[in-house]
Amino acid sequence: MTIQFTTNDLESQWMPFTANKDFKANPRLLVKADGMYYESHEGGRILDGSAGLFCVAAGHGRKEIRDAIYAALEQLDYAPPFQMGHPLSFEAARKVARILPDHMNHVFFTNSGSESVDTALKIAMAYHYARNDKQRTRFVGRQRAYHGMNFGGLSVGGMVKNREVFGPGLPGVLHMRHTWSKDDRFVDGEPETGADKAEDLQGFVDTFGAETIACCIVEPVAGSTGCLPPPKGYLKRLREICDANGILLVFDEVITGFGRLGTPFADEKFGVKADIVTLAKALSNGTVAMGGVAVSDEVYETIISSAGPTAVEFFHGYTYSGSVPAAAACCAAMDIYEREGLFENAARLSGAFGEMVHSMKEFDVVTDIRSIGLLAGIDLAADGKPGKRGYDLLKALYANGLLIKLTGDCALLSPPLICEEKHIDEIGTILRNTLKAI
Ligand SMILES: Cc1ncc(COP(=O)(O)O)c(C=O)c1O
Is the pLDDT of residue 8 over 80? Predict the structure, then answer.
């Protein structure tokens, strides 16, 4: 299928996180997808090296998900989620809870990762409030973190460009140092050194008082900034400091959740349990906007039991929390993940994936490579202005038939979990040929 677009056809939509002028002059439109491949509006076959935007874990065009959404909408289009409900959202929560860490059996639905993060921060505050620990209003985030683009997530996030225009954000937020070190370049998996950076949290406790801190939020593996696996022992140390000081630990698993690391969630990969876990993306296999916040039984019981029998316990929610099509998509996606053993497939392929990615070290332009599970970041030397080389690479790869995500000059790879060795080889071939040419 070849479709011609003119700039005028594209003008009305203001695109997110996009160089609008350049895109509209030379659009990259995806018109079809199946399995591991997209088709472009010019008829090109594009291998999906990024699971869309980290979300299409079960691959494209899943009939089970499409059918489930259709069947659900045929019966019921919409039900208000406040003081009302519909069976599918409960079924979705139950299926997600089966995959979640054992101590987590409750999920609050949202519509995106950004909403999940803001909801998680509010849950942390509500937990302390319910325990009459009302001074705990500070949040601890981290440099280079990405927690979405709403004001809560932006405030605890630490990607400079994303924050630049938007002022100081929430008051009382503290940032730990990021964990990247130039001494640990080209490491496959968790770096040996850097666990001591968790002591930044202890420093905030010492300086501001534990009784002022509601939660510490981290991506177990920093994703959007370029795939930064945690140094060995780092997350354990964060957990210890949180436990010793009554601080909740929040894992933002919008990217890492649902098998990206080769385990269902990060707790199994790193042996550290969070109190709150944010979800989105693969929650619906990318088909319908959906997010969620999973909480420990202790967090749930504390908030729920703090109000009277007919009182609303948590003053928060969204019109589309657990909407009919989202819940249907979620149920079908969870069934596929379990039935097809996709998390296990990710674990099985992570060795071959890591090897392919790390073989790019041969190029002088590559300054660092990091990988874990089916997630990797390849840093490129800047070409004059930061981000220029990354953008040029994105366009060249697309022209050569590979879609990946670029953050500045870092190329991020995260193929769908259905991928096979041959797809990893194909990603490697296109990447190598393209890097040769830039
Ligand atoms: C760790 C993390 N948190 C939150 C978000 C925001 O998700 P959304 O774009 O669905 O709002 C993202 C998006 O990439 C993410 O990677």
Answer: no
Q: What span, in angstroms and rounded, lies between the C-alpha atoms of 361 and 353?
A: 14
List where CATH 3.40.640.10 sits in the chain: 65-340
Q: How far is the CA of 117 from the centre of ligand 1 (A)?
A: 8
Rounded Cα distance between 391 and 239, Å, is: 38
Classify the phi-psi angles of 77: left when phi > 0, otherwise alpha if psi is within -120 to 50, otherwise beta: alpha
Question: Does the structure show a pLDDT above 70 at 423?
Answer: yes
Q: How far away, in angstroms, is 148 Cα from ligand 1 center?
A: 5
Q: Is the pTM of this model over 0.85?
A: yes
CA of 254 to the centre of ligand 1 (A): 6
pLDDT at 3: 73
Q: So what CATH class is 20-61+341-437?
A: alpha beta
Q: How far apart are CA 324 and CA 322, in angstroms?
A: 7
Compute the average pLDDT of residues 351-357: 98
Check whether domain 65-340 has CATH 3.40.50.720, yes or no = no
Closest atom of ligand 1 to CA, residue 253: 1
Atom of ligand 1 nearest to the CA of 150: 11
Q: Which atom of ligand 1 is nearest to the CA of 223?
A: 16
Pocket test for ligand 1, best of 55, 109, 117, 279 (most atoms within 8 A of CB): 117
Question: Could you give the angle at which helices 324-340 and 342-358 cross, rounded to 10 degrees?
Answer: 80
Q: Which atom of ligand 1 is nearest to the CA of 219?
A: 1
Q: What is the arithmetic mean of pLDDT over 280-287?
A: 98
- pLDDT average, residue stretch 349-375: 98
Ligand 1 proximal residues by C-beta, below 6 Å: 112-114, 117, 146-148, 219, 223-224, 252, 254-255, 280
For residue 1, pLDDT beyond 70: no
Task: In the chain, list all ranges with CATH 3.90.1150.10.
Answer: 20-61+341-437
Q: Which of 249, 225, 341, 325 is nearest to 283 (CA)?
A: 325
